[in-house]
Each structure stands twice: as C-alpha cells, then as structure tokens.
Amino acid sequence: MKAITEGVLLWEPSQYQIEKAGVSFFMKWLKQEKGLSFGNQKELWEWSVKELESFWESIWSYCKVQSNTPYNQVLESRKMPGAKWFTGATLNYAEHVFRGGRGNKPAVIFQSEKNQRTEISWKELQEKTAMVANSLKRLGVKPGDRVVAYMPNIPETIIAFLACASIGAIWSSCSPDFGTGTVIDRFKQIEPTILFAVDGYAYNGKIQNRLTNVSELQSELSTLKKTILIPYINSNDFKLNGQTMYWNDILCGDSELVFENVPFDHPLWILFSSGTTGLPKPIVQSQGGILLEQLKTLLVEQGVNQDDVFFWFTTTGWMMWNLLVGGLLAGGTIVLYDGSPSYPSIHILWDLAEEVGVTFFGTSAGFLSACMKFGIKPKERHSFSKLRSICSTGSPLPIEGFLWVYENVKKDVWLVSTSGGTDVCTAFVGGSPILPVYAGEIQARSLGAHVQSFDDEGKAVINEVGELVITAPMPSMPLYFWGDDNNKRYLESYFDVYPGTWRHGDWIKFDDKGSCVIFGRSDSTINRLGVRLGTSEIYRVVEALNDIMESLIIDLELLGRKSYMPLFVALKPGVTMCDDLKETIQAEIKEKVSPRFVPDEVYVVEQIPKTLSGKKLEVPIRKILLGFPAEKVVNPGSMANPESLSFFVDLARIINE
Fold first, then answer.
1. Residues 511 and 554 in one domain
2. How far is CA 539 from CA 84, 178, 573, in A?
3. Are 310 and 456 found together in one domain?
4. What is the spatial order of strands in the sheet that 548-553 belongs to?
5. Contact, 400 vs 440, CB < 8 A?
6. How far is the C-alpha of 416 from the C-alpha of 486, rounded, in Å?
7. For residue 561, what pLDDT is reported?
C-alpha cells in the first residue's frame, strides 16, 4: 500500500450523489417550508446550533414525529445539565418503528456462526413484538419497570426491546460474553423485574454455555420476578429456578400491538459506561430524545431510507447496537450478525454484505485495521454494487485505514469516520455525503451538536488541539444516572472542568473548513517534557508497520520522577521481536512524529488490555505502572481480556522497586 499523508483527497461525491443525499433533501425542505437557504454543510451546521430550537423543531416536522399531545415548547432552557425538550409531548419510540405498515418486506436479516441466514418480515416482527409486549403486561410489567437482557445480537433481542419500548418499560442489555460479576455490577444498580437470557452462544467456532451464569444472575438480582430463556444453543443439561419461562411461552396470544404514550423525557433505556475504574455509570436516555436524535442521524445525515439494507457489526453491550435497532426507523432492512468477525475467515462480514446487498456497512476502526493487517482485498471477491457507505467508529481510524478502504474495498464509496459516545448514544462529529473525504479527517460536526475545541483557558480554538466540548444541550444527553442523588456523578463526569459546558475527554482539532481530527483521550495524553501529544498519533505510526497488530503507549512522567515512556506492542502471528524491528519502530516515530516521543523501551505483549467494547485501557494501565494496586484502578470484569493485566502488574513491581 502506498504511503499517504493526512488531508489527501480520497473521494468526492458526484452531483447525482449530492442531489440524492438525505441532507440535501432536508435543505430543500427547509427552503420550501421555512424560507431558509444554505450554501453548504458548514452553513447548515452553524444555523443548527445558533438556532437550536428552530433546528430541532424542523427535525420534528421533517421526520413527521407523531405525538399524542402537542408540545408546549421545544426547549425550556439551554442550561446544562437539566435541559427539558418538547415538554407536554407524549409519544412512543416503537410506534415510530412500525408506523409504515410494510407487510412482507424483510425487516431483519440475521446470520450467525451457528445459524443459517434467516429473514423476518415487518409483519412478523410486529406480530411477535405484540405477543411479547402483551405477555410482559400479563406478567405485571408497567411503564418505568426495568427489563434487562443477557442476550447476543439476535432477532429475539430486537423483539424484546421493541416490546419493552411499546409498553413504556425501560430496557438495558449486556452481551453474554460479559462475565457474571460484570453483569451484576450493571443490572443490580437498576433493580430489574424481568430478565431475558440465552442459554449460550457461539464465538470463534466454539459453543459457550451460559446457563450457570444465568443461574447466578437469578440468585444475585433479588428484584427479578421472571426469567425468560431463549434456547439459542439448545442446552438441556442445567435447570434454572422456578421463575424461569421459555421464549415460546410468551410468543403466543394476542398479536395486536398497542403503544403506551409516554412523555418525551420518559426513559427508553439505560446504557452503561465501561466501568473500568468503578461501578459502571447507568446512563438514562429518553424515548423522545433518542427518537429525535436517531431520526436526525439516520434519515437526514446518513440518508438511510426504506430501500436501504443497514448493517452494523456490534454486540448488545455496545451503543452501536442501539443505533442498529434505530435503523428500523427508516423503514428498510437491518442486518444482524452474531459471532466473530474473523471466523471462519476475516472475509465473513464482507461476504455477508455482498450476499444480502448491504448499502450501509457499519463497523469499528479496529476491524478495518485488522483487515488491512491481514492484507485482504475484498474487492477481488465482490463488486459491492449496492454499497454506498462504510461507517467506522470506536476509535480514530488511521490514515492508512482510509486508504485501505478505497484501494481494497471500493473506490466510489462514502467513508464515514465518526466519534461520539455511549453518554449520548450518538456522534458529535461524523460524515456528510455532500462533502469530500480526506485521509485521516472526520468530515464535519454533527448537526445540532455545538461541538468546539477549548484551550486551557476555556476559549474556542481552530487549527489547534484542544478539549472536545459541547456548549449547548442535545436531546439524547442523559436525563440522569440511575440512583445518582443530586446528579453528583453526572456533574463530576462531564461538567467538572468547564461549569455548564460538557467536557467529553477527547483531544480534537478543527480546521477552517469544519473537518476535524481526534487525537485520543485527553486524560491519557502524553506530556513529554512539557510538550503534549495525543496517543493516536503514536498508534497511527506504529500500527502502520506490517509486523505490529496493536500498540499501547504510556507516559509515566510525573512530578518528582524521571520521565519514562514505554511502548507495548502485540505482534502479528509468527513475528518475533528483534533489534531491527525495534529500531524500525523507533525510527518511524522519530521521523513521523518527533524525536521527543521516541519510547524509552519497547515491550512485546501477547495482548493489549481492552474494555469489553474494544477500547484500550490507557489510563488504568498508566496508574498500575505508576504503582497503584491493580484491583483499585481496574475491574477485570469490565475487560475483554483480563489475563493481559498480569504482564503490567509484574512490570510495575520492577519499575517501582
């Protein structure tokens, strides 16, 4: 693959693509209905944040939000936290999913490691949702009750969620690859009454039985009244308690779906933070706020419509599952995949995309980087004639990842790199189909998101790296954290540095045209002898080397101690560290970053420690290496690979002797 630098033009939309973009249709509507004209994306964004109330009122009207009662005003106050949106309105998220009446058209396509591909029509999806919703009501579930799921990304999970939303119950989910302690840390905080669970799942060619885990959840979650078990792997070797029912027990009866109208700010679901340094934060988001945000994101910004096939590779423990479900709001088809993205080969997701005609392919930057590392060329197997967009999130997509997509997947495709957070269940910055794509750059700020980069004095800066902040409320911001008296944890999480302004914890740089680059977490920034640098700049250089799978850089400079910055690398299978490779790593950093940031030592590790959602554990590893007890700074249950910690614990003893 040829070398490339940041800012190189990789793709431009054609005039036809611009005309057919969702954001173009929205701008035409604004001109016709509101008399507003915008020459480009940047002008539209500026209006969307300066005239915040008018913008969200326009989204409401353009997307035809259905409310049983009229709203009194769009936004009572812009003060954060505590902004109240569309007071007086009553609605239902699930009603907007099913309002199209699309009959036998496929709503869901499902494939897994253990299941043949299947389809569920819109008619079947609605009928099954109704049966489950009516069964939940018979079990005594009321609006506001918490219903939790220990489920993979399968159709039953979608149905269970939509059933909960339809009756006003509050949903929360964990993927079954989460350990029992990790799940208890989350679910126990919110006192659920119903648990949906599977007996197991398949991953990387192996069947994982989870009945013992489910039994432990039943014992530990004292508020549970019923467990509804889905026999996904058909395991019959373990008996659960007498509260247990089976999926078929509730998939019966009345198939008429009745929607509970709830206030705009009625909770829809509870998402959880990673919980790497304490109990995970239970983030409560509203029916109306999520509905409005997803309609804006999917229909306007991404242009998803009823003819699209929308896919995102995700588990139920990542917020992208929540966006994947939101794909149903567009009236098209969503695609679920359950299993490893590299089993039986790393081509599996690309093969699926071609075979079912995926138009929007969502994934993580890590997956695209892995495809690049393995040297695959999906375009040699498939034409991807229907594929319009590839979306990447989870971490900054390196420049080489941009180039790999255009050289090896499809030349004419809109590549969207986005960044946001579970905290708002959306993106702060992302893509625009009417703008060019430049290597390493995120195209634009999200509409309605007043995103800025602040310097140390709290002033907005352009062409400088600063703190990513949000200076005005968004509808999908948390209502509160469950059980957080006086909003103490909420305020500490986002408003502790700039009162009244949301600080997200990322380093970001905007340029004059409105595009940006994310430089990693601000709380893990390298401060090398007084000069700051985002960790992603090191990762981009190191992980571009063919022999390196992943890396982790830790800055241990602290007041009163000598500067020390080790680099940890996980090598490709079959590669061993040698002096030449170590010298190459150091030379690349010296040339492409700065001599100041050449690591003091390069260590080989089997794995880079990560959260369950795939994020590198930079801050906890830094604390461990500084001498803090591992058990005080990281919860192994919140990790995808807790066994990776032992290397760093042992190294910390040596460093701190």
1. no
2. 40, 27, 19
3. yes
4. 548-553, 566-571, 601-604
5. no
6. 38
7. 56
Q: Please indicate, yes or no, whether residues 585 and 494 belong to a single structural domain of this protein.
A: no
Q: Tell me: cis bond preceding 433? Omega within 30 of 0 counts.
A: no
Structure tokens at 63: 């997307």
Q: Which CATH number goes with the domain that contains 442?
A: 3.40.50.12780
- The reported pLDDT for the residue numbered 531 is 66
Cα separation, 405 vs 378, in Å, equals 9
Question: Residue 298: helix, strand or coil by DSSP?
Answer: helix
Closest CA to 444 of 461, 460, 431, 458: 431
In this structure, the number of other CB atoms found within 10 A of the CB of residue 501 comes to 18
* Proportion of the chain in helix, strand, coil states, percent, rounded to 5: 35, 25, 40
Whole-number Å distance between alpha carbons of 457 and 466: 10
Scanning 255-387, the segments in alpha helix (DSSP H) are 287-295, 319-326, 348-356, 365-373
Does the residue 567 lie in any domain? yes
* 194 beta partners: 147, 226
Instruction: Scan for tokens 């509260």, then name that residue.
Output: 243
> In one letter, which amino acid is 627?
G
Q: What's the rounded Cα separation, in Å, for the pair 645 and 38?
A: 52
- Strand-pair partners of 379: none
Query: Under the phi-then-psi rule, with left for phi > 0, alpha for psi from -120 to 50, and beta for the rest, what region is 339?
Result: left
Give the distance between the most distant pair of CA atoms in the chain. Answer: 71
Token representation of residue 249: 């027990």
Provide the pLDDT for residue 559. Answer: 44
Q: What's the rounded Cα separation, in Å, for the pair 364 and 396?
A: 9
Integer Cα distance of 610 and 318 in angstroms: 14
Question: What 3-state class would DSSP assign to 222?
Answer: coil
Query: What's the alpha-carbon Rg for the chain, to the nearest Å?
Result: 24
Give the domain extent around 569: 525-655
What pLDDT, on the 0 to 100 scale, is given for residue 236? 74
With a cut of 70, list the residues of the chain below it in pLDDT.
1-3, 237, 276-277, 529-531, 557-562
Give helix 22-34 / helix 41-50 axis angle, nearest 10°: 60
Report the alpha-carbon angle 466-623-520, nearest 5.
25
Entry field: residues in the chain: 657
